[in-house]
Amino acid sequence: MTPGEPPTESPALDATFRHPTRLTVAAFLSACDEAEFGTVRDYCQVSDSVLSKAASALEAVGYLDVRKGAVGSRFRTWLSLTPTGHEALARHLAALQDIASAARSAGARARREAAPPASPSPGV
């Protein structure tokens, strides 16, 4: 990569997390053992259908466990991030941080290079 050229996509980015709801679900679940479907839905501010699709996609790649059961006479669904999901999320977030850091460094370098040269002080 040459200076000023945008970076190519890092292979560490996980395509599964490109969908914002999937990333939000994984991030939320990374901080708890498991959460009830409705709690995750409410946090993500999505419909049951959107969360169900996101959960299915995460489950299909092994990042999410889905547990169903009854509480009294009501059926409930609980979601939890798998160890593989925790690792994938950590790698994805680290890759995003690397991209952001590299962009900030490149921007600072470009700003320094674009700055006019300092003029000599009068009387020197």
- Biggest sheet, in brief? 3 strands, antiparallel
Give the strand order, joined by hyphens, for the main sheet: 1-3-2
Mean pLDDT, nearest integer? 89
Topology as a string of helices (H) and strands (E): HEHHEEH
In terms of DSSP E residues, the strand content is 5-15%
- Total DSSP E strands: 3
Task: Give the number of helices.
Answer: 4
- Which CATH top level class fits? Mainly Alpha
- Low-confidence spans: none
- What's the CATH topology name? Arc Repressor Mutant, subunit A
Rounded to the nearest angstrom, the radius of gyration is: 22 Å
Specify the structural class.
alpha+beta
Q: Any overview of this molecule?
A:
It is built from four helices and three strands. The protein has 124 residues and is α+β, with helices and mostly antiparallel strands. The protein has a three-stranded antiparallel β-sheet with strand order 1-3-2. Helix 1 (20-29) packs across helix 3 (48-60). The chain starts with 19 loop residues before the first helix and ends in a 10-residue tail after the last helix. The model has no long low-confidence stretch (mean pLDDT 89).
